[in-house]
């Protein structure tokens, strides 16, 4: 594992993350702090005020000040500067926003950010070890498992979960358990090949 | 999405109190100003679409510690309402003793949604009627009581053929509910002052003249668990849809049989994708009891299951399809090696 501190530093040097992150910080002093800790039964008195939320993203603690309605996807993309997770349909129908929460793949577009404060979140940005790609990332490149690439971050997160859940033993199983990730370019045969390629390494990683 | 107040109570009593705070006995639970948030896969979707407009969400996920238990003691099954679909579908003892439950859950939604969605939320999911989900259509008796039904003269290919009324033909979209119906499940419900247990078949209401009232839940009430008596190893869920995975049923059937020496002692049939509520085909079931299973009997039962079906312009195909689904599901259940 990379030191979480290092990751917190490196993300800010990414161009897109820098722009997103900078925009987020500018807004901070301008907004009032909402009353109450979201973990208690307390309710923010003025619903229009942002609330303080702390997320554990890719091993880094990220305090954010966000509207109560903010989904995990928007918190990642618009506030934490992590634009790897993609917004496809924003209604739980395409899987482009798939991230891991507490080791389980979920749809970040249908998750309110403030409901997952105490749980570790892993996004596509948290997979590589420095320049060393995760075996599933490498497999997607080796197998040419994408064309436009928009669904790819969600596909890769989902694929890792698919293997760890034990659902990557046959082509049919992979297709069924990857069905929550739609690829408009229809790179499906190559996605199945990539999942098969990376499956042994991902299984070993889990055992290790 | 409209702004809402958020709370996260840590025990059931506080949750029910919070949900009851502004509950009006006259407002349907589905339209209540205070909504319980579990997996959120229906609620947040419909809030983004402005179909649901709660002013407060009560996050009941902290109750998961107590309410997500799966208990198979004493030869019966009890499922906590906050158990997640994926966990129950993957449970080895449920796959063995209640395959209809495991199959119905596994064939629903996507792996991500199954990881999020709770069983309680699953049975309460709202219809996928496109006119209900699109607020630019004013005429939806479910959303705006008395406004009419855009689906009646609209594109109603996915709509219901059983349990419809002159007010609404929206299909109940779920799968798991059919398994519960077929297994005569009961549902445990807690409210502000008391708890009650009712037959799961009494939870959903057919649209009739008030399609906006979808369940018999009272304002402030929460489903805490589901119970099934006995074991049902000869049970199965068969689902036909427009694509092979990650799609709602056009037609599905949950079947549970008890067979002794080749004779059917008990038979349960529930239909999905074709009705306004999780649908029990009682008359069709009756034809199976005391009989030996064969192809002719399967066809006869299938005919009976859709005897009262009424198609609309685009969905009449569901009647023919539904019969074949029932017959095939019966064959599947009869052929199971127990």
TrEMBL record, chain A:
Domain 2Fe-2S ferredoxin-type: 51-127
Alphabetized InterPro entries for the sequence: 2Fe-2S-bd, 2Fe-2S-bd_dom_sf, 2Fe-2S_ferredoxin-like_sf, 2Fe-2S_ferredoxin-type, 2Fe2S_fd_BS, Aldehyde_Oxdr_Iron-Sulfur, Beta-grasp_dom_sf, TAT_signal
MF terms (GO), sorted A to Z: 2 iron, 2 sulfur cluster binding; metal ion binding; oxidoreductase activity, acting on the aldehyde or oxo group of donors
Protein keywords: 2Fe-2S, Iron, Iron-sulfur, Metal-binding, Oxidoreductase
SUPFAM superfamilies: 2Fe-2S ferredoxin-like, CO dehydrogenase ISP C-domain like
A Pfam family: Fer2_2
Protein name in UniProt: 2Fe-2S iron-sulfur cluster binding domain-containing protein
From TrEMBL, chain B:
SUPFAM superfamilies for the chain: CO dehydrogenase flavoprotein C-terminal domain-like, FAD-binding/transporter-associated domain-like
Domain called FAD-binding PCMH-type: residue spans: 1-233
Top-rank taxon: Bacteria
Xref: Gene3D superfamilies: 3.30.465.10, CO dehydrogenase flavoprotein, C-terminal domain, Uridine Diphospho-n-acetylenolpyruvylglucosamine Reductase, domain 2
Entry keyword Disulfide bond: no
InterPro entries noted in UniProt: CO_DH_flav_C (IPR005107), CO_DH_flav_C_dom_sf (IPR036683), Diverse_Substr_Oxidored (IPR051312), FAD-bd_PCMH (IPR016166), FAD-bd_PCMH-like_sf (IPR036318), FAD-bd_PCMH_sub1 (IPR016167), FAD-bd_PCMH_sub2 (IPR016169), Mopterin_DH_FAD-bd (IPR002346)
Molecular function via GO: FAD binding; oxidoreductase activity
Matches recorded under SMART domains: CO_deh_flav_C (SM01092)
Keywords (A to Z) from UniProt: FAD, Flavoprotein
A Pfam family it matches: CO_deh_flav_C
PROSITE patterns, alphabetized: FAD_PCMH (PS51387)
TM region positions: none
Name this polypeptide is given: Xanthine dehydrogenase family protein subunit M
Source organism of this protein record: Bradyrhizobium rifense
Taxon lineage: Bacteria, Pseudomonadati, Pseudomonadota, Alphaproteobacteria, Hyphomicrobiales
């Amino acid at each position: 594992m990379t030191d979480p501190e290092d990751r917190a530093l490196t993300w800010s040097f990414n161009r897109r993350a820098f722009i997103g992150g900078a925009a987020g910080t500018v807004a901070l002093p301008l907004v009032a702090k909402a009353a109450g800790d979201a973990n208690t039964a307390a309710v923010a008195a003025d619903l229009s005020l942002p609330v303080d939320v702390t997320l554990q993203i890719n091993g880094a603690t990220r305090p954010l000040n966000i509207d109560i309605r903010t989904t995990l996807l928007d918190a990642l993309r618009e506030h934490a500067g992590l634009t790897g997770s993609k917004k496809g349909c924003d209604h739980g129908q395409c899987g482009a926003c798939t991230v891991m929460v507490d080791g389980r793949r979920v749809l970040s577009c249908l998750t309110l950010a403030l409901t997952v404060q105490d749980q570790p979140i892993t996004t596509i940005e948290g997979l590589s070890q420095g320049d060393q790609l995760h075996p599933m990332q490498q497999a997607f490149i080796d197998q040419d498992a994408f064309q436009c690439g928009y669904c790819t971050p969600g596909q890769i997160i989902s694929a890792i979960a698919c293997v760890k859940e034990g659902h990557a033993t046959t082509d049919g199983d992979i297709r069924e358990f990857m069905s929550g990730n739609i690829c408009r370019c229809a790179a499906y045969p190559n996605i199945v090949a990539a999942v098969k390629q990376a499956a042994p390494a991902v299984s070993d990683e889990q055992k290790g | 999405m409209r702004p809402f107040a958020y709370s996260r109570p840590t025990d059931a009593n506080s949750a029910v109190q919070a949900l009851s705070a502004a509950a009006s006995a006259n407002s349907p639970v589905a339209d209540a100003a205070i909504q319980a948030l579990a997996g959120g896969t229906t609620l947040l979707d419909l809030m983004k679409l402005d179909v649901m407009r709660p002013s407060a969400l009560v996050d009941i996920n902290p109750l998961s510690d107590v309410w997500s238990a799966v208990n198979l003691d004493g030869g019966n099954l009890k499922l906590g309402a906050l158990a997640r679909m994926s966990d129950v579908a993957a449970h080895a003892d449920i796959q063995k003793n209640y395959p209809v439950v495991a199959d119905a859950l596994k064939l629903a939604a996507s792996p991500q949604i199954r990881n999020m969605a709770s069983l309680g939320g699953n049975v309460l999911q709202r219809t996928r009627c496109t006119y209900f989900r699109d607020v630019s259509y004013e005429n939806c008796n479910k959303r705006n009581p008395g406004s009419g039904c855009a689906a009646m003269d609209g594109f109603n290919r996915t709509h219901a053929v059983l349990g419809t009324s002159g007010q609404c033909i929206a299909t109940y979209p779920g799968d798991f509910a059919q398994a519960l119906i077929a297994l005569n499940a009961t549902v445990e419900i807690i409210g502000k002052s008391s708890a009650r247990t009712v037959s799961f078949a009494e939870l959903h209401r057919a649209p009739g003249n008030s399609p906006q009232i979808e369940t018999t839940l009272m304002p402030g009430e929460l489903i805490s668990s589901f119970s099934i008596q006995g074991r049902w190893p000869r049970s199965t869920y068969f689902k036909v849809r427009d694509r092979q995975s990650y799609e709602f049923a056009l037609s599905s059937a949950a079947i549970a049989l008890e067979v002794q020496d080749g004779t059917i002692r008990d038979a349960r049939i529930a239909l999905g994708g074709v009705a306004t509520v999780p649908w029990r085909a009682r008359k069709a079931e009756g034809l199976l009891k005391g009989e030996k299973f064969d192809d002719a009997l399967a066809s006869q039962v299938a005919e009976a299951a859709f005897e009262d079906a009424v198609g609309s312009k685009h969905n009449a195909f569901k009647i023919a399809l539904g019969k074949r689904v029932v017959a095939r599901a019966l064959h599947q259940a009869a052929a199971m090696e127990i």
